[in-house]
Amino acid sequence: MESQRPGRVQLLRLLSQLEGETGDWDTVYLRNDSLCARQTRPVFASDTDRRLLLVDSLMEDEQLQRELARYGTGLVLFHSSSATYALAAPFPVKSDLLSTGRPDTKPLRQLMEHPHRIALVLVTWGAYVAALCRGTELQQFKRGTGHIHPPHKKGGSSQARFARRTEEQRREFLKRVGNRIDEEFGDEAVDYFFFGGNRLILRPLAGHSRFVKRSTPLLAARILAAKRATRDALDGALAEAYSSLLFRS
């Protein structure tokens, strides 16, 4: 199967195309829990339903398996005798659904068009930027930097001393980042939380920020790519947050 990563506009365009289709299409929506459970127990009353057997057949593709696990949002499938579209949406599928007839695009369209409240937090060692968005509109953000001494590579006691200094600077940096995020966002509620940058930073950062800790249950499974945590990186991060994974044949 050919894979693509359509953005929000491209996916909505595909849904409009599917809405113009006629004939018999099989539509499947599976929540991530239901998709994972397919390996151990039935999800629906009839576990031999041809639409579910089609899902099982598609899941033999290792790349599809790997990418669906990375997104962790479930599976959306549109299938006819002439084409198959298997999708991982940016946001979690809310309900399991099986249908036959014209493609049932309504749940996915609602998921893509709803003005979700989204938190973006990008952190690398020495820089951070955090933002709140309503749909694809950036509403407010906070950014900052902090000095962290690079590792000392000469060995001996100097290396150990510099390593301790670096660790202390990192702790102080994360503490400051956590405080700044809480000052800016306070008790703001969000629907989804996306983290980008150095994935090893997320857990210790949650120990310094009540906002990050409170939002962690809403955290997307995938880590956004962010080489630099800057204001300029926010637009790309938001576009990536809204990107889907599409396999078609």
- What is the domain total for the residues? 2
Q: Under the CATH scheme, which class of the largest domain?
A: Alpha Beta
CATH domain fold name of the largest domain: Nucleotidyltransferase, domain 5
Gross morphology is elongated
Biggest sheet features: 6 strands, antiparallel
User: What low-confidence regions span 5 or more consecutive residues with pLDDT below 50?
Assistant: none
**Strand order, largest beta sheet:** 1-10-4-3-2-5
Query: What would the average pLDDT be, to the nearest integer?
Result: 91
How many strands in all?
A: 10
CATH architectural designation of the largest domain: 2-Layer Sandwich
Q: End-to-end span in angstroms? A: 5 Å
How many distinct helices? 9
Estimate what percentage of residues fall within beta strands. 15-25%
Structural class, judged by helices and strands? alpha+beta
Helix/strand order, N-terminal first: EHEHHHEEEHEEEHEHHHE
Q: What is Rg?
A: 21 Å
Give the fraction of residues assigned to helices.
Answer: 25-40%
Write the CATH homologous superfamily of the largest domain.
eRF1 domain 2
